[in-house]
Every structure is written in C-alpha cells, then in structure tokens.
C-alpha cells in the first residue's frame, strides 16, 4: 500500500507488512501520518539545521584548536534543541493527536472498530516515543561532534540523554492524559497553553541539571547519585504509568470498570516505589532519613491523587454489576476496594495511605538507623488530613458526584474547604485578638502542622487535634462505606438496584448465552 | 415491535434518552430481522440519530436497552460492536492518508491480520467500487466516493447488522441509485439493515419495513404494505377516473355513491376520495359502467411512503 509520494521510510514500512501485523494499529497509522505530514518534517529539519548552523558558528568563532569550553557550549546547545524537540514539540503533538480524533469526528469510528482505550492511547504514546527517538537519532552525529570537541564527559552525556528521553516519554504520557480529559475546544486550547508552558519550564529544568552534571561529571561517581538517579527513573515511570491508565479510563465506555486498573496500578506503583527506596537505602545508595522523607512524600502524593477515586460516582455501573453477578468472572474475585465507586475509593485510599504511613514510621529501619523522632509520624498526620479534607467532603457531597462535572466540582470543594480551614480561623483570630490563630498556627492548617512535625516540634494538643480530625472524617464516611459494601454484596448475589425491565430482559438473555 | 416470523437481529427495547431536560427519545421500541431493510423515518430532531447512536453503543440510554443477536449494548458493548457496522451521518477522515491506508488501518483495528486482512480489503473495495482509487488521497475524493469509503470501512468486519444514518445525504442521483443497490445486495446477503433518510421515495424502493419516529416517540412500525393499507382505510385512497361521456354527470353520479368523499373535476376526469376496500371499488366501477358513463380510466392510487409519513406524523418539532 504505497503512493507515488511515499517517502523511503513509508516504503520501508510497507515492506515490513507481515511484521506490522504485530504492531498496534494506531501506531502504524500515526507513523504513516507523521512521516507524511509536513509538521514533523519541518520540525525535524529545522532542529537539525539550527544545530548545524549554530554549531558551525561556534566552531568558526573559536581558536583553530578546540578548547574545553567549545565542546561544553556546543553540548549545551544540543541539550536545549533536543529538549525543545522531545520535551515540548513531541508531547504537544501527542496532545493534539488525541484531540484531533474528536475534532475530526474520528474517535467514534475508533471506538466502534473494537480498539480498546489502552490500544488507542498506547499507540499514540508509542508513536510519541518513536518521534522522540527519531529526533534523538538525528542528533547523534552532533552529539558525537560535541564529544570530539572535548570538554564533555561521555558518561555524563549518556546520563543526560537518558534523562531527556525518559522525561520526553513521561511528558507525552502526561500530555495524553490531559488531552483525554477535555473535549470542548476552548478547554483544549487553555490546556494546550498550560502544557506548552509546563514543558518549556521542564526543558529549562532539564537543561540546567544537564549543564550542572556536564560541568561536574565526577558527581556521577559520588555516593547517592546512583540512588537519586534510579529513584528518579522509577518514580517518573510509575507516574507516567498512572497518567496513561488515567487517560485510558477517560476514553472508556461510561459503564465500564475504569477504576480497577487505575487502582491496581497505583497500588503496584506505590509498592514498587517504596520497595525501591527501601532497597536503595539497604544498599547504601540513599541515606536512611531519605527513606522517611520519600515515604512521607509518597503518602502526601497519594493523598492528592486520592481525590480522584474518593470523589468517583457512587454507583457501581450496570455493566460492572452484571459482571459481579456472573459466576467465574474476574471482577467477582476482586476485593471491594478495587471496584468502582467513591466509597470503595475512600476505603482504597485509607488502605493505601495507611501503607504509606506505616512505611514512613518504620522505613528508616531499611537504612539501619531506626530512631524514634517525631518526624516518623508525618505519614500518619497525612492520613488524618486525607480523612478530614478529602474523604469527609466526598462523603457529605457524594450525591453530586454522579456526573463527571459534579465530581470535579466536589474535588474543587475539597481544595476550597482546605483553604477555608486555613484562612477562616485566621479571620476569627483577628476578630478575637488571638495571635495563635492570626499566625495560622492551628491544627486545621496542614501547611503549618506538617513542617512542625518534620522538625519534631509538634505539641501534644495539636497531635490530638489532628487525630480527632482524622477520626471525624472516618466516622462521616462510615455510612457511605457501609452502603457501598452492601451494593457489592447485593450485586454478587445477583440483586440489582435498577428495575429496568429491558435491562432485566437483556441480563436474562445474556446469562442464557 | 414489528411482527415478523424471523428472529430479530436488532431489538430496540423501550429506550429513553434525555440530554439535560430535553427528552431526545422516549420508550422507543422496534426490531429488525435478518435480511430486512428497515427505514427509520422522521422529521429533523425526531430522535433518529440518537436512537442509532444508542444502537451502535456510542450513547448510553437512560432507560431501556438495545440487543444485537441477543447481546446487550449496555452490558456487552464490545460484543455488540463486533456484530454491527455503523455509518454515521457526519464522520471524519484522517489527514495525509490514502484510501488504501484508511481501509488498511480500520482492517487492522478490527483485528484482521495477514491474508485475512488483505482479503477483507479486496472484498470491500471491490464491492464498493473503490479499487481504482486505492492510491488516491482521501482529501481528493468526491462526497459520493467518501460515502463509499465509509461504507467500505463499515463492512470490513462483515457485520450482521448495518446501521446507516442518512447514507444518501449529499449524493447525486447516480450515486444514490448505486448506494441503494448496494444496500439491497447487503440485505439479500442476510444482513439486517437499519437506514434513516429524508428522501422517502428512495427508502420506499429498498425498505421492507419502516419505523416512524416523531418527537422522540415511535408513531408506527411494520411493513410498508400493512401500514399503507391501514392508512388507506383511515384516510382513504385517491381515485382518478376519466370518462368519454359528460364529466359533470359522472361527477354528480359519483358524489352520490357510498364510500366516495370529496369529488372534484380535473381536466377530462374526476378525482375523488374513496374510503372503501378494493371490493367496494370494483362494485363502484361496475355501477358506473351500468350507468352508461363509459369510463376509460379508473384507478385507485395507493398511499406511498411520503403520504404514509405525512399521515403518521403531525410535523411536531422538539
């Protein structure tokens, strides 16, 4: 299948026809499209030409014998150009690629073709990864030139390239996840601009880190670098996986179970990150106090992510309920906390954050320096704050979560509730002349409590208050959790909440098949 | 539900769908058996596209369900998607893609591999007459060819049920005739076809049955002959008669007869409404001859799909 205008790459791809059967169909389509589209070609050529011209100017403007600065200057230029290509242009194209499926009204056709959301998003992610790789490959001769100009450490250069490539993959996953959230054109434009700004900032961060590393290549050999580098890769990959799975959930059929894969992946990712940090500490790659800090950071991050599933709509979904009733189905084997629904999401979050809290308490053991500092309880305070600021509003406003917009409104309420809890006591302090409240130093302000806890200077009344907040949040959730569990038990017994005769007829017909 | 001896392949079972406060479809039920072409007719905004999108698993009903060969669109959308081919009214194509690449991509998406994929592509491009255009960019295709391309894509997975939303819209007369022929061939292959169109004269030539929808509710379902007969009985058929003798005398005679309503002169003849059946019409003709009025033309014009549509709907907008 070739046209007269086909490029050599497209023809080469066509020769691989039998092999291409094994590829994701979206990947094949995207590769064909971007190889023929002008935008990719122009980006590719422009980047290469800019590097070649500026590189030539650098070489011509220097002494005949290249100095050490020359190689470093040229490599800095390469890092910026590579960063713009792989960290800005490729993720933005991935964002546009998914958006164009809605704008060009082709998404329905993809859905009807039987491609799963994972195949659709996976194909687009792989395509973005391939574009980044192609850009990197185009830069290989220049990278070699930079090395030959001297002043650049090969290992440091390798580490920088790995970081750029990995960050590009993650940025593409993030761009696809954000793209899957919004279909309205105006919202998409706003998100596009936000992603563009974020990715440009990302290029700046990566470039400055790269310059520091290239300037001091001996840091690679220092203790701690390997631990930090590998932890960075593990955490980034887990977060990218989370973004991908979240995006898949956004593309799926509304009655499908989109919660379980995301929760399973989050659980697995959390266990992986925590296990990796423990292993790195045990190997002596990172200090034992870093285990505690990373445990608390993970717990805090999970607390924020928990807003997603704690504010899910409560109803199980007719399709999931049907799966639960079917003997031998995989859904039937799952624990309730992994099934869709805000109350099950709350249980899942309590379990996950408890895991993080326990890890933070005992994590330092892995580094062989167990201590009884108050800072070890950071995870527990985070759990309490989750219970009060996330789980409690979700329970009180559960009925507004039935639609997607309602769920996002409830998540916004959580943030506003937190802000109000910090600010309102300060206003009250102004009225009643309490410096303690005016300085926002009270248990309802996690931004004061948590740093105090990290310093180990929390007072007992504050500790008790934070625990009370956590218990209040849990108690408010108990009826909701009870209803959610009852719904699962009823579905497993083949009793459903909807009495729609047509669905009952369908269910009977399908059970007969 | 449409009465049929065959097992229905597509069953739309009391579906209701609202968008905000607007009820798009309410309690819509009908079915289509294998090998039948069912015309889905109704004015703009009647709920045709919403019903078709629900049947194609692209929208969820608030109540009710659609079953495809027994599989529920609500509970098993993937199973249903394997069995249906949906050709929407408005659809997009990919930029910088040729006809061959477009069809090839969807063949891969349907899970067809190797020779099976190539056979399917050959089959649908032959059937739709797209083979000479395989290397052409989609952007260069005419509207009719794009409709054929959409049909080719729809047929790739050899669906048992075809749901075609306004497939003839924007096509020239020749392309319409060709599309009509393709649809009839597909029905003859045993596929159930649900097709919506505004061009009722075209539907009447290919449809075995119709479902008439207005303001989101079904007004009538059944085969066209039965519905027409029912409408004839209710509204009466129109009879056109021409006489060699005095036409005024003939009009006076006819106006006095049973079942005759509303006579009027038209050139050398008389046109009148007749509420009786075929037997009564034969009797009237016999009496006219006995009266010596010497009719040279005397025929009842049965109600066509357009009349039937106008009879069954009231032009309500929603």
From TrEMBL, chain A:
Key words, A-Z: Membrane, Transmembrane, Transmembrane helix
Signal sequence, start to end: none
Transmembrane segments: 39-60, 72-92, 125-148, 154-177, 189-211, 223-244, 264-285, 291-309, 347-366, 378-400, 412-438, 458-482
Name of the featured protein: ABC-2 family transporter protein
High-level lineage: Bacteria, Pseudomonadati, Planctomycetota, Planctomycetia, Planctomycetia incertae sedis
From TrEMBL, chain B:
Source organism, top-level taxon: Bacteria
EC number: 3.6.3.-
Annotated coiled-coil segments of the chain: none
UniProt GO molecular function: ATP binding; ATP hydrolysis activity
Domain ABC transporter residue range list: 10-240
One Pfam family hit: ABC_tran
PROSITE patterns: ABC_TRANSPORTER_1, ABC_TRANSPORTER_2
CDD domains per record: ABC_DR_subfamily_A (cd03230)
Keywords annotated in UniProt: ATP-binding, Hydrolase, Nucleotide-binding, Transport
Enzyme class: hydrolase
Membrane spanning stretches: none
Family: Belongs to the ABC transporter superfamily.
Name by which UniProt lists this protein: Putative ABC transporter ATP-binding protein YxlF
Organism: Rohdeia mirabilis
């Amino acid at each position: 299948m070739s046209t007269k205008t086909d490029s050599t790459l497209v023809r080469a791809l066509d020769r691989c026809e039998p092999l291409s059967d094994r590829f994701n169909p979206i990947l094949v389509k995207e590769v064909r499209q971007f190889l023929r589209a002008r935008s990719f070609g122009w980006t590719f050529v422009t980047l290469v030409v800019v590097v070649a011209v500026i590189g030539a100017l650098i070489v011509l403007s220097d002494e005949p014998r290249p100095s050490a600065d020359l190689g470093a200057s040229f490599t800095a230029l390469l890092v910026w150009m590579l960063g713009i290509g792989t960290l800005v242009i490729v993720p933005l194209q991935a964002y546009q690629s998914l958006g164009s499926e809605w704008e060009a009204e082709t998404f329905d056709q993809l859905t009807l073709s039987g491609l799963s959301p994972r195949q659709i998003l996976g194909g687009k992610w792989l395509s973005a990864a391939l574009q980044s790789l192609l850009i990197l490959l185009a830069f290989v001769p220049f990278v070699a030139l930079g090395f030959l100009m001297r002043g650049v450490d090969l290992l440091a250069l390798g580490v920088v390239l790995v970081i750029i490539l990995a960050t590009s993959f993650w940025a593409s996953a993030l761009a696809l996840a954000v793209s899957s959230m919004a279909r309205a054109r105006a919202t998409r434009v706003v998100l596009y601009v936000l992603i563009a700004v974020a990715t440009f900032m990302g290029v700046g961060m990566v470039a400055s880190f790269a310059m520091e590393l290239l300037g001091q290549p001996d840091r690679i050999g220092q203790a701690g670098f390997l631990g930090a580098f590998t932890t960075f890769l593990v955490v980034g990959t887990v977060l990218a996986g989370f973004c991908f799975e979240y995006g898949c959930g956004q593309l799926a059929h509304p009655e499908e179970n989109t919660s379980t894969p995301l929760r399973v992946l989050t659980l697995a990712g959390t266990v992986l990150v925590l296990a990796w940090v423990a292993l790195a500490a045990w190997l002596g790659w990172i200090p034992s106090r870093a285990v505690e800090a990373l445990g608390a950071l993970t717990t805090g991050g999970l607390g924020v992510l928990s807003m997603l599933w704690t504010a899910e709509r409560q109803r199980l979904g007719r399709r999931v309920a049907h799966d639960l009733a079917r003997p031998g189905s995989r859904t039937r084997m799952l624990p309730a906390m992994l099934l869709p629904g805000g109350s099950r999401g709350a249980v899942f979050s309590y379990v996950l954050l408890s895991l993080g809290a326990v890890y933070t308490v005992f994590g330092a053991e892995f580094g062989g320096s167990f201590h009884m500092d108050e800072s070890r309880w950071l995870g527990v305070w985070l759990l309490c704050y989750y219970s009060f600021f996330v789980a409690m509003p979700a329970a009180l406003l559960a009925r507004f979560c039935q639609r997607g917009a309602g769920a996002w409104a409830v998540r916004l309420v959580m943030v506003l509730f937190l802000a109000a809890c910090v600010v309102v006591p300060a206003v009250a302090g102004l009225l009643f002349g309490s410096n303690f409240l005016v300085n926002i130093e009270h248990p309802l302000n996690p931004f004061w409590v948590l740093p105090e806890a990290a310093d180990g200077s929390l007072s007992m009344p504050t500790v008790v208050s934070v625990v009370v907040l956590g218990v209040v949040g849990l108690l408010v959730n108990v009826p909701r959790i009870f209803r959610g569990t009852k719904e699962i038990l009823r579905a497993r017994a083949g009793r459903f909440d909807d009495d729609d005769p047509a669905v009952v007829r369908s269910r009977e017909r399908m059970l007969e098949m | 539900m449409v009465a049929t001896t065959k097992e229905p392949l597509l069953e739309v079972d009391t579906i209701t769908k609202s968008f905000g406060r607007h009820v798009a479809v309410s309690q819509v039920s009908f079915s289509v058996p294998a090998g039948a072409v069912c015309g889905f007719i109704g004015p703009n905004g009647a709920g045709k596209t919403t019903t078709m999108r629900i049947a194609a698993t692209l929208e969820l009903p608030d109540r009710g369900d659609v079953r495809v060969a027994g599989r529920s669109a609500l509970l098993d959308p993937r199973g249903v998607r394997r069995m249906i081919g949906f050709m929407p009214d408005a659809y997009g194509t990919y930029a910088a893609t040729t006809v061959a690449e477009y069809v090839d991509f969807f063949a891969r998406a349907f899970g067809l591999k190797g020779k099976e994929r190539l056979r399917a592509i050959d089959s649908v491009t032959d059937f739709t007459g797209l083979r000479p255009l395989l290397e052409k960019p989609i952007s260069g295709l005419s509207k009719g060819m794009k409709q054929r391309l959409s049909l080719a894509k729809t047929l790739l997975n050899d669906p048992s049920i075809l749901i075609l939303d306004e497939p003839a819209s924007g096509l020239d007369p020749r392309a319409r005739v060709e599309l009509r022929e393709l649809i009839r061939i597909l029905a003859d292959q045993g596929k159930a076809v649900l097709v919506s169109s505004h061009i009722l004269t075209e539907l009447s030539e290919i449809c075995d049955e119709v479902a008439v929808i207005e303001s989101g509710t079904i007004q009538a379902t059944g085969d066209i002959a039965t519905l027409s007969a029912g409408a004839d009985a209710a509204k009466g058929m129109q009879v056109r008669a021409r006489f060699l003798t005095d036409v005024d005398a003939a009009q006076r005679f006819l106006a006095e007869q049973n079942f005759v309503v509303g006579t009027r002169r038209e050139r050398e003849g008389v046109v009148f409404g007749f509420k009786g059946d075929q037997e009564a019409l034969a009797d009237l003709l016999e009496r006219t001859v006995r009266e010596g009025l010497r009719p040279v033309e005397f025929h009842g014009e049965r109600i066509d799909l357009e009349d039937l549509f106008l009879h069954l709907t009231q032009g309500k907008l929603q």
